[in-house]
Write a structure and sequence with these properties.
The complex is a heterodimer of chains A (308) and B (253). With 308 residues, chain A is α/β, with parallel strands linked by helices. Chain A folds into 2 domains: 219 residues, 3-Layer(aba) Sandwich (Rossmann fold), CATH 3.40.50; 70 residues, Alpha-Beta Plaits (2-Layer Sandwich), CATH 3.30.70.1560. Helices cover 33% and strands 28% of the residues of chain A. Chain A has a 6-stranded mixed sheet, with helices on both faces. A 4-stranded antiparallel sheet of chain A has the order 2-1-4-5. The radius of gyration of chain A is 24 Å and the shape is elongated. The two termini of chain A are 37 Å apart. Chain B has one domain. In chain B, α2 crosses α6 and α4 runs antiparallel to α6. Chain B has 11 helices and no strands. With 253 residues, chain B is mostly helical. The longest helix of chain B is centred in the middle third of the chain and has 28 residues. The chains are: A alpha/beta (308), B mainly alpha (253). The complex binds adenosine-5'-triphosphate and magnesium ion. Adenosine-5'-triphosphate binds next to α1 of chain A. The site of magnesium ion (MG) has 4 residues of chain A, from α1.
């Protein structure tokens, strides 16, 4: 089966001369949740906007469900729903009207039952006759999601769906994303919250300065790049790491009470046994120890740092 | 053809008109009434007939055209400017609608509004002067054709404008003078010959002339030429819009 989204050699240079995307190649599989991570200005929104038809691309090809987004835009766009990063809503329309409008715009016959289902799933049913301007920010965000779901898209883009959203709505959103995935919807989301990617995504792509620097299965990524730390709480603080131990991956905490040893979980030998033996030889006593796995967040920060 | 898409845009735009019914209908009706009072009754009573038509009746076609042009342009330009301004345009850009469908939706709604408005002004005029309509079908055709053409023109302005000032400036600085100098209040034949020639470069002359012919059977220029010129202007607008959508000018970065 062909991928739901296929991006090949995609470049984008804005009129300002800024090159926002450089040679992006990416396939998104049907039914997966793909998280796109990257710092501010990395090009996440640009990539999504090109796929959805809001921004023109400079060169390259994009297929949505096998349809070229430029030459066969009608078929391609029919498959796609988009929740943009910015809260751009009408003001005077009611929730019901604006969601029905979206469905019509995407060429679907009216279906009040479906709209009702979408509104109920987003806890918007009570607000259906409210004007959008009278809603809170979080509620407006829900309305934007409802609009994107109004035409039953096969592929859903969520550009920072949980930015500026309270904990409850964030949980709701995750729940909704899971339910959509169960129904076979492909979901591409961008986020700055790593925990979100960690919690939701099947695969993760990292984009930095317009380049896709990594695409990996989430679990593989966390295993491959997962570093562990061993922290030793010392009996007596040290001034510095003893010279005789300088060949080891050791760091001293600022107050001198902790020695931190970093090791790779994927390595055959972690070197812990050696470390402990040599500490004993040197007479460095410790009263406690613990290990910690680095989170996706640290992985991500390291990746982006390495790039710069 | 994405008929549901066209219908969605058209309905959205018409709903906007109902919300702003007062300013959409009332203000042009009031200002036109004032013109009738001042020019038709007060000054008109001291003017002789023009080509056998009383002055009050003579200015009706021009006054309707004035409102029709202004309203078509402002309705259509505002209709597309607002989503650009508020950012909701993203949805139209990402939807499976062709430029023709977008234009039918927005321009269709704007033209519908201004046509209805033109008819309302026509009825309002009845309160002030007596008039006849020799060719009602032609009259209606000119009304609709002009409404569509200038809604297209307004649509272009709405896309081009990136500030509210620009949105206002074209109707104010260009259209108003063209209408006033286009023979609303006088017959072209009343001008010195050199001005008659210059006037022929004013597209509004053809609109008013053709429209007045539909009322009273009198015209400054050939009626077919009038219809042809209006049609030509419409085609030019369509070509410009097609190019806008093709290049994404001011719509897609
Ligand atoms: N219309 C535009 N014209 C010129 N440059 C632009 C335009 N839109 C975006 N850019 C630039 O392109 C780069 C990528 O922007 P983009 O919005 O895609 O980043 P992002 O990854 O979505 O960032 P964020 O996390 O802040 O949303 C930025 O440097 C931005 O300044
Ligand atoms: Mg962004």
């Amino acid at each position: 089966m062909h991928p739901d989204i296929s991006v090949k050699n995609l470049y984008k240079t804005y009129a300002s001369g800024h090159q926002a995307l450089k040679d992006i190649n990416l396939d998104i599989r049907r039914g997966e949740i793909f998280a796109l991570l990257g710092p501010n200005g990395a090009g996440k929104t640009t990539l999504i906007s090109i796929i959805c038809g809001i921004v023109n691309h400079t060169s390259g090809t994009v297929l949505a469900d096998g349809h070229n987004i430029a030459s066969d835009y009608r078929a391609a766009r029919t498959k796609i729903g988009l929740v943009p990063q910015e809260l751009n809503t009408d003001a005077f329309e009611t929730v019901w009207d604006t969601v029905s409008f979206s469905r019509g715009l995407f060429g679907k016959a009216p279906n009040p039952a479906h709209i009702e289902k979408v509104l109920k799933s987003l806890s918007l049913w009570d607000k259906r006759d409210s004007r959008i301007m009278a809603l809170s920010g979080g509620m407006k965000r829900r309305v934007m999601i409802a609009k994107a779901l109004s035409h039953e898209p096969q592929i859903l883009f969520l550009d920072e769906p949980t930015a500026g959203v309270d904990v409850e709505l964030r949980r709701d959103m995750w729940e909704l994303v899971r339910r959509l995935r169960e129904n076979g919807v492909t979901i591409i989301l961008t986020t700055h919250y790593i925990e979100e990617a960690e919690e939701m995504a099947d695969r993760i792509g990292v984009i930095s300065q317009g380049e896709l620097i990594l695409v990996e299965d989430k679990h593989t990524l966390m295993q491959q790049l997962g570093k562990k730390e061993l922290r030793l709480h010392l009996q007596a603080p040290l001034e510095s790491v003893p010279d005789s131990l300088s060949d080891l991956q050791l760091e001293l905490s600022d107050d001198g009470t902790e020695l931190v040893y970093t090791f790779d979980t994927s390595e055959e030998r972690t070197g812990i046994a050696t470390l402990l033996r040599r500490l004993a030889e040197q007479g460095v006593d410790f009263k406690d120890l613990r290990t910690r796995e680095s989170s996706l967040e640290e992985i991500f920060v390291n990746l982006v740092k390495a790039k710069v | 053809m994405n008929v549901y898409g066209i219908r969605a845009i058209y309905k959205f735009e018409m709903a906007r008109m109902w919300r702003t019914l007062m300013q959409s209908v009332l203000s042009p009706v009031i200002s036109t009434s004032l013109y009738f009072v001042v020019f038709g009754s007060a000054i008109g009573s001291r003017m002789g007939d023009i080509d056998g038509v009383s002055y009050g009746a003579f200015i009706i076609p021009g006054l309707i055209m004035l409102s029709l042009l202004m309203q078509s342009i402002s309705n259509a330009s505002f209709g597309i400017y607002m989503p650009k301004f508020s950012g909701t345009i993203y949805e139209v850009l990402s939807a499976p609608v062709s430029f023709v469908e977008v234009v039918i939706g927005y321009v269709g709604a704007a033209a519908t509004k201004s046509t209805i408005l033109g008819l309302i002004i026509l009825l309002t005029a009845r309160l002030f002067v007596d008039y006849s309509i020799d060719h009602p079908v032609w009259m209606f055709l000119f009304l609709v054709l002009t409404a569509i053409t200038f809604s297209l023109f307004g649509f272009i302005i709405g896309i081009w404008a990136d500030t509210f000032e620009k949105l206002q400036i074209v109707p104010l600085m260009i259209v108003t003078p063209l209408v006033f100098l286009g023979g609303t209040f006088y017959s072209i034949s009343m001008l010195p010959p050199i001005w008659q020639t210059i006037t022929l470069f004013n597209p509004v002359v053809y609109l008013i002339s053709g429209f007045r012919w539909a009322f009273y059977g009198i015209s400054d220029v050939n009626v077919l030429l009038c219809a042809g010129m209006t049609f030509l202007f419409m085609v030019i607008c369509l070509v410009i819009i097609a190019m806008i959508f093709k290049t994404g000018y001011r719509l897609r970065s």
